[in-house]
């Protein structure tokens, strides 16, 4: 019988996390945008002031996927929420319930910490994921447009 376990990542998992990030980026056709390295993962997830957290899924002690998250805040609710930056299950392990298991683990954390919501983005072309999320009870936020400032534009704005 296949044993799926979930655990919080440790600093020794930094290379594995980076590999999952790259595998997700390749799946999303965005590998060219990955500039993170193992030291970045160590500092931001496990340094003195971590800004994010990560869960790993393992099947029979073999890495099968990851969910990397951080806290956001709802002024309307007056509560923190959990934002899922990335969630990825290795293609060889899909269909075994790992994705649903990640959401269960994150929901348990959200309940324990009195978070008001769990939120994430999904690419519009990724219909299989959208359908999966809807089965979990998620709803799309079509009335919102995602905005972003990054790179040189941040520097220009700061001047």
What is the count of distinct domains?
1
CATH top level label: Alpha Beta
What's the SSE pattern? Answer: EHHEEEHEHH
CATH architecture: 3-Layer(aba) Sandwich
What is the mean predicted local confidence, pLDDT? 95
The computed structural class is: alpha+beta
Radius of gyration: 16 Å
E-strand count: 5
CATH superfamily: Gcn5-related N-acetyltransferase (GNAT)
Number of helices: 5
* Helix percent band: 25-40%
Q: Could you describe the largest sheet, including whether it forms a barrel?
A: 5 strands, mixed
Poorly predicted regions are none
Counting copies of identical and different chains, the oligomeric state is: single chain
CATH topology: Aminopeptidase
What strand order characterises the main sheet?
1-2-3-4-5
Question: Strand fraction band?
Answer: 15-25%
The coarse silhouette is: globular
